[in-house]
Amino acid sequence: MDKIVETKNLSVHFPLKGSGVFAKPKAYVRAVEQVSLTILRGETLGLVGESGSGKTTFGRALLRGVEPTAGAIELTVGGRSLDLRSLKRGELRRARRHMQMIFQDPYASLNPRMTVRDIIAEPLIAQGFAESKRTLDEKVVRIAERCGLSREQLGRYPHAFSGGQRQRIAIARALVLEPPFVVCDEPISALDVSIQAQILNLLSELQQELGLTYLLIAHDLAAVAYACDRVAVMYLGRIVEIGPTRSVYLTPQHPYTEALMSAVPEPDPDRPMRPLLLEGERPDPANPPSGCPFRTRCQYATDICAATVPQLSSHDGAHWVACHHADRLALKGTAEQVAEPREIAAK
Q1: What is the pLDDT at residue 268?
Q2: How close are the terminal C-alpha atoms of the chain, in Å?
Q3: What is the rounded CA–CA span in Å between residue 138 and residue 132?
Q4: Strand bridging mode 80-83 / 230-235
Q5: Is the separation of the CB atoms in 225 and 338 below 8 Å?
Q6: What is the model's pLDDT at position 130?
Q7: What are phi and psi of 53, to 5 degrees?
Q8: I need a labelling partner for 133 at 20 to 30 A (CA). Which of 12, 161, 238, 319 fits?
Q9: Which candidate, 253, 219, 220, places its Cα nearest to that of 326?
């Protein structure tokens, strides 16, 4: 598969200003730090990590929802590559038809004063695709029905819907422009457990029908195992491991990934969970440790970990890890039953 999105040394820093109106920044929060990765056309790439690791900031930076501090973002559409960081305001506005975002909270992401029809139609109007009211309504009805909404519901307001239905509205709004690339920022975390599988299945069906590519940001590792082709693990703004879902889940090569995998619930209720508890607190992103960002919580850390930042490397060209000692560690992954649903689901 060819690439659709590629980042090179992408960084996002937020200034921490001192006291006073004209005070200069006294420090910077390094939310995303030198991230280089490629997202392949048609795949679902999962992005996981604990809260505050920089996942959402990275997703928004890809769409320039937040401005990157450094690095490059390349979007490939229609056989040509767009350097997103170099686009001016008008050019970026036009480029947004090729990339959209599904937000975490369906209650906060929808305008309560607009009908469902107007919410879904808004991107079409903003991009100049409203040739006529009839054409506009046809496009809105088509995507709404594909997302599980009826024609009769289009005249209602968001408060009349459940959380799952609101997320379907948000998905329809994101896909009405038929963008090839969609960032899904924890699209199921605010929903009831009984609804989460429905939304994941809907996203998978839409991906098959419309040829979509997803970046799925999530905390639910079991959902990521079910929905994603590859998984990237982020810690303190850096990618520490990336590879095929089955490989990362069953044979993690980074100690942080091992700790995450140990928290995945066992499919057998009679087998108790034994999560690997990390010592210490996550470092301050405004004052990260030298060398490996995980070394202050890692039981395998040595002097080289404090002196040098490990770079992503791979033995097979598919599974990459940023760890000085990856070749000598034998880390434990999840149960095999958790790592296989993606294959069973027959994407």
Answers
A1: 66
A2: 15
A3: 10
A4: unpaired
A5: yes
A6: 80
A7: -80, -10
A8: 161
A9: 253
CA-CA-CA-CA torsion sign (145, 343, 62, 255): positive
Token pair 């709404």 in the structure block, residue: 144
DSSP class of residue 156?
S
pLDDT value at residue 280: 78
Can you tell me which residue has the tokens 């029809």? 117
Nearest to 181 by CA among 139, 142, 209, 215: 215
Q: What is the pLDDT of residues 62-90, one digit of tens each?
A: 999 999 999 999 999 988 899 999 999 99
Write out the E strands in 159-277. Answer: 181-185, 213-217, 230-235, 238-244
* Residue given tokens 């079409």 in the structure block: 124
Query: Which residue from 206, 203, 205, 208 is spatially nearest to 217, judged by alpha carbons?
Result: 203
- Residue segments in the chain with a per-residue pLDDT below the cut of 50: 337-347
Residue for token pair 């299945």: 201
Q: How far from chain centre, in Å, is Cα 260?
A: 17
Nearby residues of 198 by Cβ (< 8 Å), 6 or more positions away = 164
C-alpha to C-alpha distances, 207 to 34, 54, 146, 341, nearest whole angstrom: 29, 25, 12, 17
Chain mean position to CA 67: 17
pLDDT of residue 282: 85
- State whether residue 84 is helix, strand or coil: helix
Distance CA 185, CA 101 (A): 7
How many residues appear in the chain? Answer: 347
Token pair belonging to 148: 């599980």
55 SS3 class: helix
Q: Determine what percent of the chain falls in helix, strand and coil, rounding each to the nearest 5.
A: 35, 25, 40
Question: Which phi and psi angles does 39 have, rounded to 5°?
Answer: -110, 125
SS3 category, 152:
helix
Q: Which two tokens stand for residue 287?
A: 């004052």
Specify the pTM. 0.91
pLDDT at site 255: 95
Q: Listing from the earlier edge strand, what are the strands of the sheet with 320-321? A: 99-102, 181-185, 213-217, 44-48, 230-235, 238-244, 320-321, 313-314
